[in-house]
Automatic annotation (TrEMBL):
<dbReference type="InterPro" id="IPR053136">
    <property type="entry name" value="UTP_pyrophosphatase-like"/>
</dbReference>
<dbReference type="Pfam" id="PF01863">
    <property type="entry name" value="YgjP-like"/>
</dbReference>
<dbReference type="InterPro" id="IPR002725">
    <property type="entry name" value="YgjP-like_metallopeptidase"/>
</dbReference>
<protein>
    <submittedName>
        <fullName>M48 family metallopeptidase</fullName>
    </submittedName>
</protein>
<feature type="domain" description="YgjP-like metallopeptidase">
    <location>
        <begin position="23"/>
        <end position="235"/>
    </location>
</feature>
Length: 241
C-alpha cells in the first residue's frame, strides 16, 4: 500500500494506492473517510494522481457526507463539575459535591449530582457513576419489557428476563435458549421510546430468530415508526457516546 496526495480546490486529498490484478483503476471513499485506489502494477502513479484529481469534486462531496455521520468520540472522563452526561436522551451537567454522609448519585433539574467523600478520588467517582447508570438501566429496561411484552404475549411468547452488559457492536441480543434479552448498558443514554424499540426488536426474535420478511412484517405491525426510533439511536445517541 502506497500513500500519496494531490491538491484540489485548495484542499489536500490524501489517498492510498493498492496494487492488484485488476483491469481498471478503481476509487473508493470509505466510511472512515480514507480514500483508496486500486490499480494494476503497470499503471503509473502520474496517471493515478490525475485520475484522483479528476474525481476531486466527487471525493470531497462523499468525504463531507461521511464526516457528518462520524461518531463523536467522548473524551476521557474526569468526573468533575461541568462535564456533560447523557441519560434517557437528555444531557445533564455533573455537579460534584463533597459529603460526610452516604455517597450517592442523583439527578435533578438538569443536573446530575455526585455526592462523594473525596472529590479527588477518580476511581470512586467513576464507580459511583457506573453503579448509578446500571441501577437506572435495570429499572428502566424492565419497565420497557413490561410495556411491550403484552404485544408478544398473545402469540405465546414466554416472558424473558433482562440481562445487562456493555457491548461494542449492538444494542441488544435475544438469547432464546436462555429466555433472556441481553441489553447494552449504554442504551440507558437513549430516550425511552428508543429503548422500547430495542426491547420489542429482541422480543420478536423469540418468534422469528432471524431478520426475515416475517420478522420485519411483525415489527412494522407492532411499531410502525420503528425506523425513526432506530435512526435516533444510530445517528444521535451513538454520536454522543
Amino acid at each position: 500500500m502506497e500513500k500519496y496526495q494531490i491538491e484540489y480546490a485548495n484542499k489536500i486529498i490524501d489517498f492510498v494506492v493498492t496494487r492488484k490484478k485488476v483491469k481498471n483503476v478503481n476509487l473508493h471513499v470509505k466510511p472512515d473517510m480514507t480514500i483508496e485506489v486500486t490499480a494494476n502494477e503497470r499503471v503509473p502513479i502520474d496517471f493515478i494522481s490525475n485520475f484522483v484529481k479528476s474525481k476531486g469534486s466527487w471525493i470531497l462531496k462523499h468525504v463531507g457526507n461521511f464526516k457528518e455521520v462520524q461518531p463523536y468520540k467522548q473524551s476521557e472522563r474526569e468526573y468533575v463539575s461541568g462535564e456533560s452526561f447523557k441519560y434517557l436522551g437528555k444531557q445533564y451537567r455533573l455537579r460534584v459535591q463533597q459529603t460526610s454522609e452516604e455517597e450517592m448519585v442523583k439527578y435533578f433539574r438538569g443536573f446530575i449530582y455526585l455526592h462523594v467523600k473525596d472529590p479527588n478520588n477518580f476511581s470512586r467517582k467513576a464507580k459511583l457513576m457506573e453503579e448509578w447508570y446500571r441501577k437506572k438501566a435495570r429499572i428502566i429496561f424492565n419497565e420497557s419489557l413490561e410495556k411491550v411484552y403484552p404485544f408478544l404475549q398473545k402469540y405465546g411468547v414466554e416472558k424473558p428476563k433482562i440481562d445487562i452488559r456493555l457491548m461494542k457492536a449492538r444494542w441488544g441480543s435475544a438469547q432464546t435458549e436462555k429466555k433472556t434479552i441481553l441489553l447494552n448498558s449504554e442504551l440507558i443514554k437513549a430516550p425511552k421510546y428508543c429503548i422500547d424499540y430495542v426491547v420489542l426488536h429482541e422480543l420478536i426474535h423469540f418468534m422469528y430468530n432471524d431478520h426475515s420478511e416475517n420478522f420485519y412484517q411483525m415489527l412494522y405491525t407492532l411499531m410502525p415508526d420503528w425506523e425513526k426510533r432506530k435512526a435516533i439511536l444510530d445517528e444521535e445517541v451513538v454520536r454522543d457516546l
